[in-house]
Amino acid sequence: MVQAPSTPAPSNRGSTTACLFCDRSGPGIKISKEHTFPEWLTKLVGPPSPSTGNDFQMRTHRLNSFTGDATTAVKASVPSPSYVPLRGPCSDCNGGWMNNLEVRARPIITDIFNGGTPRITPGVQRDLAAWAAKVALMLDAYEPGLAACSSGQYRWMYQHHTPPPDWYVWIGAFAGSPTIGGHHLRLTLTIGGPAPDPGHAPNTANADTIIAGRVVLHVFGTQVNFRLPDMPANLRNRVRRIWPARAAFEWPPGPPLTLQDAAALHRAIAAILVGPSRHV
Question: How many CA atoms, within 13 angstroms, populate the side-chain half-sphere of residue 247?
Fold first, then answer.
């Protein structure tokens, strides 16, 4: 067990000269724009209905686990998820290993979108979990000053192309009309004792619910070696953990989740983690 740092680990979030993931900078290193939600996914699902206008919103959320204070900020409101690229990865990362994650995740997400019932092998679990972790890291980069993910976690993703240590990923089927969505929640956690200043505790954990067509992916990551308890009983039979990978299973993993069910994933985590002077 380790104590959470008093301040978030530094990173290159917001930098226009160093890569968010590999940390390289200087001559020959070009910082590119990465679509947090890829264009292929937008083309697959289709844009929002014209009657709804600019209804895709990129939001960031923060929950102080010690005080219970919660904040939400709308970072963008646009016609399509693909309209919200972030300047951060270098062109080598973006066009290399990051593109490879898209190439591996795309066929399985597309198959499920088209009504397929694929076998979710450990290899498929790894590919989907890595893609979801990359999306979660990109979501965290939208607000550098409130980062919940450390520079070491970005570097791990660059070096290993898997979710960082102490990250968990679950998957479920989506019951509603196919859509694209991302709910990024930042959390304050410490190990062994409360934060020195609970009102200004740093963000050290992230919880993300990602909807990709007919697939729901839930990511939980932390900097403080915290093992998240299993999902509550009402959700346990509807989602399967895919990272760390487990035995193969057939799609779907359980009864499909509605938007309200997907939101309940966050409420379940908040119920576990929030309380006066909360630490684990």
Answer: 1
